[in-house]
């Protein structure tokens, strides 16, 4: 595993564009640090500081930071599809296979890289959230701090699932731009199918089926936190209640799609004439 990971990291770090995109994908999630220190002056009447609103309290901070950090996953998605596009355009794929690398090892090297960067991103967000929470949170008991750290696991699984999908599209079309376009097409198709089922059957059934779609299932891992923030400010409003927890079955659905995408990527490479 380490040999395959080291081989892939060498390719990425020797590419200037890949290095820039990797740097951006790691740095941008840390905008939560900037958000925590923002102070908005309303014409001298009062100053609003986001960190003082309670949104960076434990345990809600794990939900907020992982949700916002996951919005920046597209930058590393570009790296993932570029990994495949460069292999074909630079003929390094064929050369690797000639040098003794099997097709299975080739796909595994990409997958190990995805897991590695997803793990690094998760650890960085965990550290940032922990220190922001210690600074702003009114609750510093250990039991409260570790509560809802399941959002970190959901974030990690979400990254792996999304990047595995990008890997599959990269293998399918061999071009970075087209692979990213397929993400948008898949998003549209999911909503078209949802609309057809809603029209033919009912909204509830359509919603349950949609939760098994690739992109929707990944989104479901970390629900939007805005409604939850409103719940903390207006606890008397029962209509704001919703299920924002991380569920084991949502994680298994995404892991299932991850396995499917990696397997299909391998099958494409195995059958394709290089």
TrEMBL record:
One Gene Ontology cellular component annotation held by this UniProt entry: plasma membrane
Q: Tell me which UniProt keywords the record has, alphabetically.
A: Membrane, Transmembrane, Transmembrane helix
Q: Which GO terms describe its molecular function?
A: ABC-type transporter activity
Q: Which Pfam families match?
A: ABC2_membrane_2 (PF12679)
| Annotated transmembrane regions | 20-40, 60-84, 111-132, 152-173, 180-201, 248-269
**What is the name of the protein in this document?**
Uncharacterized protein
């Amino acid at each position: 595993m380490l040999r395959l990971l080291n081989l892939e990291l060498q390719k990425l770090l020797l590419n200037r564009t890949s290095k820039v995109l990797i740097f951006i994908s790691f740095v941008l999630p840390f905008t939560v640090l900037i958000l925590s220190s923002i102070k908005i002056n309303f014409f001298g009447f009062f100053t609003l500081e986001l960190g003082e609103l309670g949104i960076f309290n434990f345990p809600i901070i794990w939900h907020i930071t992982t949700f916002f950090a996951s919005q920046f996953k597209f930058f590393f998605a570009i790296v993932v599809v570029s990994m495949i596009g460069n292999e074909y355009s630079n003929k390094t794929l064929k050369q690797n296979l000639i040098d003794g690398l099997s097709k299975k090892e080739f796909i595994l090297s990409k997958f190990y890289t995805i897991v590695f960067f997803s793990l690094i991103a998760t650890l960085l967000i965990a550290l940032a959230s922990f220190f922001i929470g210690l600074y702003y949170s009114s609750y510093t008991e250990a039991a409260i701090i570790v509560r809802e750290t399941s959002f970190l696991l959901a974030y990690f699984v979400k990254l792996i699932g999304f990047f595995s999908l990008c890997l599959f599209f990269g293998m399918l079309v061999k071009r970075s731009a087209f692979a990213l376009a397929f993400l948008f097409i898949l998003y549209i198709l999911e909503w078209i199918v949802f609309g057809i089922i809603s029209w033919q059957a009912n909204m509830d059934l359509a919603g349950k089926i949609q939760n098994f779609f690739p992109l929707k299932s990944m989104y479901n891992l970390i629900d939007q936190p805005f409604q939850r923030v409103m719940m903390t400010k207006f606890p008397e409003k029962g209509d704001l209640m919703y299920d924002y927890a991380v569920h084991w079955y949502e994680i298994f659905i995404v892991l299932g799609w991850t396995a499917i995408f990696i397997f299909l990527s391998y099958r494409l490479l195995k059958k394709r004439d290089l």
